[in-house]
Amino acid sequence: xxxxxxxxxxxxxxxxxxxxxxxxxxxxxxxxxxxxxxxxxxxxxxxxxxxxxxxxxxxxxxxxxxxxxxxxxxxxxxxxxxxxxxxxxxxxxxxxxxxxxxxxxxxxxxxxxxxxxxxxxxxxxxxxxxxxxxxxxxxxxxxxxxxxxxxxxxxxxxxxxxxxxxxxxxxxxxxxxxxxxxxxxxxxxxxxxxxxxxxxxxxxxxxxxxxxxxxxxxxxxxxxxxxx
Length: 228
Ligand SMILES: *[C@@H]1O[C@H](CO)[C@@H](O)[C@H](O)[C@H]1NC(C)=O
Ligand SMILES: *[C@@H]1O[C@H](CO)[C@@H](O)[C@H](O)[C@H]1NC(C)=O
Prior knowledge:
Layout (H helix, E strand, L loop, with lengths): L1 H19 L2 H8 L2 H7 L2 E3 L6 E3 L13 E3 L4 E3 L14 E3 L6 E2 L13 E3 L4 E4 L13 E3 L4 E5 L11 E3 L5 E5 L16 E3 L17 H17 L1
């Protein structure tokens, strides 16, 4: 069991390093057993000049991983769909890359996630109501991306203490009630209104009684997400 975990970790480092074109660094890591064992718990490859898309199957088997940080690289493509395999993941930092498109459906199955930092990428599309499935989130940073549309009115993240949605210029509409306690600075550079920001002008934000409209909107959005 331990050795197969190790083999998988070695494979992962090699694959990641190949993506990066940094084979020499991988050889060093493969020779360092302690580093590889630590990898089962945390994989941190910040500022390693990782380039290109993360190939499918690279992160799928890291089922014991709690921390994944690939921040400040030039990783492109989308957030890898097989991230859903990292079922123990608590902390994910992919900030400062070139990740584009929407978040894969499986990302929202990572119910233990506490910290998510996707800031400074090229992520687009709506902010999915599926975020509410990540009930353990304390930090969610979606700053400096291209998210658009409105925030789901029923977004519910009870443990959230830090939230940043700033500089997503295409994002408008009302701040959901559950995020109204965030400081206004969390929403700078968006067209959002209400909550800590200036009150919304017409049309007024959907009231709780307006559930049909809200539900339809959510269904549209969910449909869009399943197509991404
Ligand atoms: C990942 O797990 C799958 C299924 O359990 C297995 O077929 C595959 O070889 C594993 N990949 C790696 C890189 O170990
Ligand atoms: C993610 O990495 C960035 C860039 O180094 C850092 O500023 C930020 O604090 C990290 N986010 C979290 C949630 O730790």
